[in-house]
Amino acid sequence: MRLFLILAAFTWSATAASGDAIWDIADRWTCKTTMHIVVNTDGSDPEFNTMSNQLTFDFVTREVSTRFSDARGKIGFQRYSESTWGQFNIVEVMWDGEAYPMIITGEGGQWWHTGGANWSRPGEKMLNTTYRCTPGDGS
What we know:
alpha+beta; disordered N terminus; 9 strands; 139 residues
């Protein structure tokens, strides 16, 4: 019976933690590039993993930083939601005064963020990057 109670308590605590927003799990999160794609808007001339980046979310200072351009953004609102498709941590980041929603999706104890740019800029290549996010400073 004692073993059953210990296992039940462990299972409950693991389940409760999996349903928490990332800012409730840790104050700081690091997201590192796992896949980067650059492609023409017609799908031609793809380039894979030509560059990497790291995003750092600091929920205490309410800042997001990126190594790609040494830019810093301010965290605006943040919201947590979950469904059968996963856990969604929605973080509005103000980059140079422009609001940009960033979504870190959790599923199976892993957290991911995907971002892209230049979808509607004729003559420019589209960018898409997928990051794996982990609690802490990434070291």
